[in-house]
Design goal:
The two termini are about 45 Å apart. This protein folds into 3 domains: about 260 residues, Alpha-Beta Complex (2-enoyl-CoA Hydratase, Chain A, domain 1); about 180 residues, NAD(P)-binding Rossmann-like Domain (Rossmann fold); about 90 residues, N-(1-d-carboxylethyl)-l-norvaline Dehydrogenase, domain 2 (Orthogonal Bundle), CATH 1.10.1040. α4 crosses α10, α14 packs antiparallel against α15 and α26 crosses α27. The strands form 4 sheets. The chain has an 8-stranded mixed beta sheet with strand order 12-11-10-13-14-15-16-17, sandwiched between helices. It has a 6-stranded mixed beta sheet with strand order 1-2-3-4-6-9, sandwiched between helices. The chain has a 3-stranded mixed beta sheet with strand order 5-7-8. The model has no long low-confidence stretch (mean pLDDT about 95). By secondary structure, it is an alpha/beta fold. The chain contains 28 helices and 19 strands. β14, α17 and β15 form a beta-alpha-beta unit. About 50% of the residues are buried. Bound molecules: 3-hydroxybutanoyl-coenzyme A and 1,4-dihydronicotinamide adenine dinucleotide (NAI). 3-hydroxybutanoyl-coenzyme A (3HC) binds next to β5 and α3.
């Protein structure tokens, strides 16, 4: 078999066979690439002039893994195992030449080569865990043989892309090549291997580092305990650990059998399906049907931020982190100093954990300058307003900004609920106005809702998306509506959570069910964390809701040591008998009959209205795709990745089942559960979100 000419080329230079792959965008191991690899190895084997082989890739990266789009389909072409055997068993040395990223199946191919040379800028990793998988082409058995059990555990359960210099230290690569010299460096390396008569180094036969871990099962137990919190609910991390255990306890063939069995189980299970959906969803969000990819973007070199409070400070850090200077404007010296001090303290905390150097702290804080004059924003290419949530105030600020900002600058608001069109109308340039809704803490949370107004220009939308990507966020383009997408769905859930506690469920019951479902916390724990008094007014409060009563009692959440829960000095929560009594009094006062709720009922009451709201949002065109809503809820609210987001979850449950459950709930509890007409239509026509163009 000869390599498929388009994706694989084999030629010989001075006795070194160069097998180069070229399959954009990321040289994933599609059937064509596997065929090309196998053909190349066969040519190398058959050609007596070939003394060694260099495997190299064209384009932006070495092989980035198996072709994820092939998962779940019928197998085509040679299997990856067959290709790897051909490489490992070739009777001439094979050197992998790595640039970009050698990931997953890509690294597993490189691990079957006898040596690895990498560009200094390259990275290697086994990120399968992030797709709900484990490395299924021998990676679980070969990696610990090269880097040792502890490092393999860390790499495989985090999926981290390890920089080449660290790979060299670990023994994962054998040599580094300077930028621009990968091919020549790998050829020279291969020639040395031949000249020195070095053995064909098969990773499968190396045993020293595994030997060091034999008879020490505590390594695994301690490691499991260390990742338990971070990996709660996920199957894949534990399965990865089991494979490394098998590598220690069994011979290579035994370990491979365990790997194959567990890989199949994950591949065909619901979690990996969900996680693969999220992988593609996170790449889809950048695609905006009516804003072409090549829309000219505004060059963002300087950023201005108005308001140095909770959000403004965090937003500023995002830009300083990538080297963009920020001007932070406040009303008083005191507020400004406080804001700048919080920023510094945040950076110093990161540095104290070893995740930032002292020098970086100075560079980044040095990029953020404070000012009390909005006129100082005249040079900014992007201004983000993050003052109090008040329409009159925001309008006043945008009117002033209109007079100050340079032509073409983007004027953004971080409002979490106000009408961006109304804010835009306070300026004479509504095409430059957009919402950039960050989530708190803004320097940590990965989501930005980019809120397009009626007049927002394509360039402003495209630039806002691009700049959000540059600062490492997932940005989803949404339309103007109360709460936009994320908070609008949150509010549908909150309404039901509040009702449930008046009908007999306790806040800790509701929280437990949602926590067990995989969310980081339930609605009441979340309220306690955020502060029950957000939006509450002492003067007008009349004890009409449980929240009012709690605030009036100064139970305002974690910050006051009590809210829906009681808190000890380490902020551990316990259910509060006082709150239980308040809730019961409300029910008695309203003459309500209370009853017990099963976990399933609680879940349905909370989650089905979220799905229904999501469908309404799609019908109104406020989100582009169902998968965008999934990304919003995963990145902004911690919806469990292994359940793929609320809309993906709905399809897994079955849209028909969701509809009939909503209909039942509507009979019992009224219109709040009335199914979205779009959902009814989709079910009647047997359509998925994708079929429907969402
Ligand atoms: N299979 C199929 N398509 C892939 C792919 C893969 N493994 N990796 C990336 N792509 C596609 C993306 O969907 C995207 O397509 P689009 O342009 O149509 O949206 C395109 O390649 C470019 O990807 P990115 O936008 O992510 O490009 P970046 O340059 O930002 O990142 C990357 C490149 C670091 C390689 C990143 O794409 C990535 O992390 N890819 C996945 C790597 C991975 O998980 N590999 C393991 C796969 S599972 C496996 O190997 C199983 C094995 O053990 C048997
Ligand atoms: P905050 O109260 O912590 O900070 C607001 C800051 O704006 C204060 O420091 C205040 O001094 C300053 N300010 C007020 N008027 C000003 C003016 N004319 N010029 C300059 N500075 C001025 O408020 P927070 O929480 O940061 O919220 C800001 C905005 O972000 C609001 O619109 C809010 O709805 C939104 N938001 C808040 C989130 C949160 O979780 N706190 C999440 C997402 C959005």
């Amino acid at each position: 078999m000869s390599p498929t000419p388009e994706v694989a080329q084999f030629h010989v230079i001075n006795g070194i066979g160069i097998l180069s792959l070229d399959s954009p965008p990321v040289n994933a191991l599609s059937a064509a690439v596997r065929t090309g690899l196998l053909g190349g190895m066969q040519q190398a084997a058959a050609d007596e002039a070939v003394r060694a082989v260099v495997l190299i890739c064209r384009g932006r990266t070495f092989i980035a893994g198996a072709d994820i789009t092939e998962f779940g389909g019928k197998p085509k072409g040679p299997g990856l195992g067959e290709v790897q055997d051909a490489i490992e068993n070739l009777d001439k040395p094979v050197v992998a030449a790595i640039h970009g990223t050698a990931l997953g199946g890509g690294l597993e191919v490189a691990l079957c080569c006898h040596y690895r040379v990498a560009l200094e800028s390259a990275r290697c990793g086994l990120p399968e865990v992030n797709l709900g998988l484990l490395p299924g082409a021998g990676g679980t058995q070969r990696l610990p043989r090269l880097v040792g059990v502890e490092r393999a555990l860390e790499m495989m359960t985090s999926g981290r892309h390890v920089p080449a210099p660290e790979c060299l230290e670990l023994g994962l690569v054998d040599a580094l090549a300077p930028e621009g010299e990968l091919e020549s460096g790998a050829i020279a390396f291969a020639e040395r291997v031949v000249a020195e008569g070095r053995p064909l180094r098969k990773v499968r036969e190396i045993d020293g580092k595994l030997e060091a871990a034999r008879g020490r099962p505590e390594i695994f137990e301690e490691f499991r305990a260390s990742i338990a919190r971070r990996t709660r609910g996920f199957l894949a991390p534990e399965y990865n650990v089991r494979c490394i255990e098998a590598a220690v306890e069994q011979d290579f063939a035994g370990g491979m059998a365990v790997e194959q069995r567990l890989f199949r189980e994950l591949l065909t299970g619901p979690q990996s399906l969900a996680q693969r959906h999220v992988f593609f969803a996170e790449r889809e969000i950048w695609k905006i049907p009516d804003v072409p990819r090549d829309t000219p973007k505004i060059d963002i070199q300087k950023v201005g931020i108005i308001g140095a409070g909770t959000m403004g400070g965090g937003i500023a850090m995002n830009f300083a982190n990538i080297g963009i200077p920020v001007s932070l404007v406040e009303t008083s010296r005191e507020a400004l100093d406080r804001g700048l001090a919080v920023i510094r303290a945040n950076y110093e905390r990161t540095a104290s954990r070893g995740r930032l150097s002292a020098e970086d702290v100075e560079t980044r804080t040095g990029l953020i300058s404070g000012s009390l004059a909005m006129e100082d924003l005249a040079e900014a290419d992007l201004v983000i307003e993050a003052v109090f949530e008040s329409m009159p105030l925001k309008k006043e600020i945008f009117a002033r900004l209109d007079a100050i900002a340079k032509p073409g600058a983007i004027l953004a608001s971080n409002t979490s609920a106000l009408d961006v069109n109304e804010i835009a109308a306070a300026t004479a340039r509504p095409e430059s106005v957009i919402g950039l809704h960050f989530f708190s803490p803004a320097n940590v949370m990965k989501l930005v809702e980019v809120v397009r107004g009626d007049a927002t220009s394509d360039a402003v939308i495209a630039t806002s998306m691009a700049v959000s990507k540059r600062i490492g966020k997932n940005a989803a383009l949404v339309g103007v509506c109360p709460g936009f997408v994320g908070n609008r769905i949150l509010s549908a859930r909150q309404i039901q959570a509040n009702r449930l506690i008046l009908e007999g469920a306790m806040p800790w019951d509701v929280d437990r069910v949602l926590f067990d479902f995989g969310l980081p916390m339930g609605p009441f724990a979340m309220s306690d964390l955020a502060g029950l008094d957000i939006g509450w007014n002492k003067k007008t409060s009349k004890g009409e809701t449980v929240r009012d009563v709690l605030c009036e009692m100064d139970r305002r959440g974690q910050k006051t040591g009590a809210g829906f829960y009681d808190y000890d000095e380490r902020r551990n929560a316990t259910p509060s008998p006082i709150v239980e009594k308040i809730i019961q009094d409300f029910a008695t006062r309203d003459g309500r009959k209370t009853r017990n709720f099963s976990d399933d009922e609680i879940l349905a009451r909370c989650v089905y209205p979220m799905i229904n709201e999501g469908v309404k949002i799609l019908a109104e065109g406020k989100a582009i795709r169902a998968s965008d809503i999934d990304v919003i809820w995963i990145s902004g609210y911690g919806w469990p990745v292994y359940r793929g987001g609320p809309m993906f979850y709905a399809e897994q449950v079955g849209l028909g089942s969701v509809l009939s459950r909503l209909q039942d709930l509507a009979k019992e509890y009224g219109d709040a559960f009335a199914p979205a007409p779009l959902l009814e239509e989709m079910v009647a026509e047997g359509q998925s979100f994708r079929d429907r163009g969402f």
